[in-house]
Design goal:
Length: 371
């Protein structure tokens, strides 16, 4: 089946008892046992599994072409479950432009438990130079947040295979509509489903999808059910509902972002646009080879520095000045000030999540804000 069909059907089935076409929300935390003490439905207690979560995990696994998926209460909870599933003392190779929430999680919650280096994961020599006997994982994020750096997934997989390492790919910016890391050999895909999967800036969620069910995956499943960072049945329901339109939403997002990136690149007040769909992007060739669309988040730097950048976010009328991405509404933010004191993000950088409004209105809004 094609991805549009999977998105609509893989997370839904007709309810056996009521014949409802849309799966009902099952709020029950507990499920009746039979005379032998067993569980006829397979469900026992909702932290371990719930019908709405099962439905969500089914569609997530199929969208990324994986063996199985695990849904979490946020993207950070999904990332943390990977870190918690690793043996203490494991060394992780991380991107220098890693999502700041996960970078801070490692630095503040896993210091002394795991080892990590933040490096240019797209530079094969640099990666190889950082592999140690206790290295277990190469973590990649492509395109990265907020600099839109691209990492060659196949290259990371090739290096990992030589050293028996796992590759985990944060695919939040691309979604399976634009990039399928498991097909390129990555072991696990991570998502903040708060972003494009949810798509309406009204729910938090995270997901991990595995290429194969192995020892690491069993440990991750244990972290999910024992740690309990699970999404509620209602959140699972709404996420499954949103996913049905993900393929069509992504087309609109990708279309608008490309046009907005091209507009900004030609604007006299813009110093630089970071977007993998522009030929000026340093890794454009890699992006073109491994992506089927370039996503819809872009960053741009303004001439004149931080003050000029902040004036623009205060002058927009359609864009909301807010963090996050992936919703139908467009957002713009001054990125460095949200990332905290250890940010490496340039102070004249604005990050844009391009929404589904008409592109002419979005361009006109930035035009007036920069006038
Ligand atoms: C938002 C985001 C996360 C974290 O997800 P939450 O749902 O906010 O916990 C992780 N990685 C990337 C690339 C993100 O954009």
């Amino acid at each position: 089946m094609k991805i549009e069909t999977i998105a609509i059907h893989a997370g839904n089935h007709i309810d056996e008892t009521s014949k409802a076409v849309i799966q009902p929300i099952v709020m029950s935390t507990t499920f009746e046992r039979n005379h032998e003490g067993g569980y006829d439905s397979g469900y026992s207690y909702s932290r371990a599994a719930n019908p709405n979560r099962t439905a969500l995990e089914n569609v997530l696994a199929k969208l990324e072409n994986g063996a199985e998926a695990a849904a979490f209460s946020s993207g950070n909870a999904a990332g943390m479950s990977v870190f918690q599933a690793l043996e203490p003392g494991t060394h992780i190779i991380c991107p220098d432009d890693m999502y700041h929430g996960l970078r801070n999680q490692l630095k503040m919650l896993f210091a002394g438990i795991l080892e990590f280096d933040f490096i240019d994961v797209n530079d094969a020599d640099v990666v190889k130079a950082h592999i140690k006997p206790n290295t277990g994982v190469i973590w990649i994020e492509t395109p990265s947040n907020p600099l839109l750096k691209i990492t060659d997934i196949k290259q990371a997989v090739t290096i990992a295979a030589k050293h028996n390492l796992k590759v985990v790919c944060d695919n939040t910016f691309a979604t399976p509509l634009c990039q399928q890391p498991l097909a390129l050999g990555a072991d696990i895909v991570m998502h903040s489903t708060t972003k494009y999967f949810g798509g309406h800036s009204d729910l938090m969620g995270g997901a991990l999808i595995t290429r194969e069910k192995n020892e690491l995956w069993e440990k991750i499943r244990n972290v999910q059910t024992m740690g309990g960072a699970i999404p509620s049945p209602t959140d699972c329901y709404f996420l499954t509902r949103s996913i049905k339109t993900l393929p069509y939403r992504m087309r609109g997002h990708v279309h608008n972002a490309q046009l907005l990136a091209e507009y900004l690149e030609n604007h006299p007040r813009v110093e630089k646009v970071m977007f993998p769909g522009l030929q000026s992007h340093p890794q454009y060739a890699i992006a073109k080879a491994q992506m089927t669309g370039f996503g819809a988040v872009l960053s741009f730097c303004l001439k004149g520095g931080e003050e000029e950048a902040k004036k623009v976010v205060n002058a927009v009328k359609i864009f909301a000045q807010a963090t996050s991405l992936g919703g139908v509404e467009s957002l713009i933010e001054h990125r460095a000030s949200i990332e905290g004191p250890d940010t490496k993000t340039p102070f004249n950088l604005l990050r844009v999540s391009v929404g589904l409004e008409h592109i002419d209105d979005l361009i006109a809004d930035l035009q007036q804000a920069m006038a």
